[in-house]
Amino acid sequence: MITFLRRRALTSVIPLAVVVLGVFCLARLTGNPASLYLPLNATDRMRQEFAERNGFDQPVLSQMFDYLGGVLRLDFGESLRTGQAAGGMALDAFPATLQLAGFTMLIAVLGSAVVGSWAALKPNGLADRVCSTMSMVAASVPDFWLAIVGVWIFAVTLGWLPTSGVTGHGIWILPIATLAVRPFGVLVQVVRGAMVSALSSPYVKLARSKGADDYRIVTRHALRNAAAPALTVAGDLTVGLVNGAVVVETIFGWPGIGKLMIDSILQRDFAVLQAAVLLTAVAIFVLNILIDVCYALLDARVRQTVKT
Amino acid sequence: MSLPSKLRAPRRNRAIGRFRAVRRRTAVAAAVSGFAVLVSSCTVANSDSLGGSGTGLRVVLPEEPPTLEPCESSLTSTGVVVRSNITQPLIERNPKSGDLDPLLATGWKRTSDTQWTFTMRDGVDFQDGTAFNARDAAYSIERAVNSDLGCNVDGYVFGEDPLEVEAVDEKTLTVESKEPDPILPLRLSFVEIVPTSTSTAKKVRQPVGTGPYEIGRWDTGLKLRLDRNKRYWGKAPAYENVTYQWRAEGTVRAAMVTSDEADVALKLGPLDGAGDLGVNHPNNETTALRLTGDEPPLDDPRIRRAVNYALDKRGIVKSLFSGLGKPAGQLVPSGVLGHNPGIKPWPHDLKKAKALVNAAKADGVPTGKQILMVGRNELFPRVSETAEVLQEQLTQAGLNIKLKMVDESAHLEYQLRPFVPDAGPVALLIQHGNQAGDAAFTVDQYMKAEGAQSVMGTKRFDRMIAEAGRKSGKARQDAYEELLDQQNSEVTQFAHIAHMTGVIALSPHVSYTPNSATNDEMRLADIRPAG
Predict the structure, then answer these.
(1) A146, A226, B209, B487: most buried, per Cβ within 10 A?
(2) How do residues A230-257 score in pLDDT, each as one tens digit?
(3) Does the beta-carbon distance from A164 to B247 stay under 8 Å?
């Protein structure tokens, strides 16, 4: 396993280097940030001073080497917008996104395992049809609409939940519910499909013939074998959330990495954008490795491949 | 009782079973501890409670201030928190009357064509306990205007030429400009005063000032709390503390007030759902199309006039702005020195617009050439719909309009010199806010031939602008009135749309009358508990 992890870490180095260089180049293609940070009627002298102060008067190659040197020292420079250390801003924002993504996926995975398995027990039965329709709706609803409607119903009309905020446990419910709906809908469909296939396999028939009940068959036999495709999709969905749940973070004022990245793009705050993208990329590589480890734990065939 | 040996699991199988059980327990323990870490880490985003209840005021803004640096207070998101709350200027412009009121300066007079002398207020202390005097005022002006900090207020209010600033004694300050400047005191009302201990090498994020509130705690990304300044020289403000939060979505800001999570929500749209708690106020913003004049067909004055006739301003205000706003005929709104009450909005006359386009076409003007209309997302509520309506109305007049909606940074490339090269004829949808209260802040930028945001002008018009800028009092008002009139009749760089109206949401527990400066400088001392 250690060899496998080492191999995965080494193969991640090249994509990370591409990300580091790519974000530097793409950020600069968006144009000169001076017009955003200087007053509308700024003089030429002020524009020149701004460029000198922030190193934008240097050739792009020189700027790139400065940036790469900074990355190696974990110094991403200062935010143009706030004057704070860019790396610190990204690190401050990341836990908020991780919390949101963690809870969301926990709820979506557990919920979809139960609902998807229940639907698969009797294919084309009433429960299956209801679950399939609802999961398709859930997978298709746009999150910005859901967020606004959720605020309107549960915060404004019923007064049960806060609209957004920074205090109390109630603030978690709307953002997580909004975010969880789509992954839940997608995963229900995946789990249901995999479970239908698993429940019709010979080992399940054997278990039935030995008198095992539905609960035991689902939890002990079928679910474990159906977990691999669900894990693949759940991994992709988690990567999307770790990348930043921009809409939800923006609507609910959640100080996460997605909102930070969007603000940095709109404000051409290159240093913060570079730090946030690199941090997210590292997190996604770590997440992918964890998913591979989970595969190995779930499936003996994968474990065997890893050993070899 | 023991099982017969045949029925016992072989030793190896039992070992595997034990191993699996251990692994399962380990996995469960790992999952539980992971969940516990996740739950316990909630405090990262949850922090402590708001200070809004009872003695506190809760304000929700559209965005977090990037900094509280006083010399950046001409940025709306910074100024709305800092100006006259944490720091104060020497002189304050009264947004209702337009008059200049004394603040840290008790008096001022013009001592020569180019020099003004200010008398400092006694008994004022900064929040750090140091006494305020003329040296602090001189230092603050030098720092904002003459230093290398690149302060936003420098470019916004002052020109290229540095000011000569001198603290004659503890109570007297002189400020000298290179050219005669009758509105220098107004310009200085944008300079917030800081103590001489403030850095000039680097901008500060959390300043010290003389205002009624001081910074209590700033949880970046979450909220900002201001506490009442116990050393404040004036009347203590009504609220002991003020908590700012920020939500980008207008509907959420409005919902926070209607569900009693906030007391004041700024910058709402008419359809954001504030309901009875919404309060309208003039915001000195004017929307218009700025027309380039260097390429056909917009280089023909008949086409620019046709654009003005083609726009149904009244219809746009009524249907798209929910009646909030007034059709505009000039860039300077009422309440700003220089506004010309005699200028009426161009009438909506599609026949006349078509006739002008046809006349130009008959003279060989390529009226079918594509005009790029550039709008900015989130410039004002329902901006996309407005841009589409403008496009349709100009198309009906016989022009070929392509609409492009862009974000702020891309829009600035069309808005500011040097403009986007080879963009062709451009009709740029702009919103200009004159918060300074003098037409000079509009005309110098938008109407001088080489103005930072001007695409058209004449030498004669430039001379008129320069002369108007040197006048004061009624002569100044008359000169700007004439300029604005001639802009419409002779230059026609703009097709004005509307003088806008802002909306804020106010809790029933709060008493406050918003004014034209509210979005840029919301004075907390003016807000009181209702009743």
Answers:
(1) B209
(2) 888 998 899 888 876 888 888 888 889 9
(3) yes
